[in-house]
Amino acid sequence: xxxxxxxxxxxxxxxxxxxxxxxxxxxxxxxxxxxxxxxxxxxxxxxxxxxxxxxxxxxxxxxxxxxxxxxxxxxxxxxxxxxxxxxxxxxxxxxxxxxxxxxxxxxxxxxxxxxxxxxxxxxxxxxxxxxxxxxxxxxxxxxxxxxxxxxxxxxxxxxxxxxxxxxxxxxxxxxxxxxxxxxxxxxxxxxxxxxxx
Length: 197
Description:
Elements: H1 3-40, H2 51-61, H3 66-87, E1 97-102, E2 105-110, H4 111-122, E3 128-138, E4 141-150, H5 156-175, E5 179-189
Parallel strand pairs: 4-5
Antiparallel strand pairs: 1-2, 3-4
Helix pairs in contact: 1-3, 4-5
């Protein structure tokens, strides 16, 4: 991926993060202010935070709907933060995209597309079966994790190195993006296929 395309990818990712950070900052400041008010309410003569002043401020807020709009904005921001915190751990199941720019426009390549390209290579290898593929796209770099089983008669090191090499070449040729890493995990040996006469 060219430096310009990588910068576009980073800018899109950064814009989303900036919005979430601003929402988090505003909610944190409001929570801090509310905490300070709650801490000092029991003390009767605390100047601006006295019960009389708070009662005066609350009475002035009545019939002023700007405060309702501010409250709704804070509520929506808080709900967004709750959803972000709950869905943050589920990123692995989400489809991610490589975003590239060409002279004709934008090209988005999904992580599922890369999984399909990996399967097209891995299906050609004999001796490796039941390969499950996970693709991570981080800052315009591709990370591929393969997990599968091997036949007992193959040389695991040679076969997996060849699989890594062919997969890297195929993905880079098809997408034009560098594959940063391909990890292979062999978790079982399959039973040999018996010839039945």
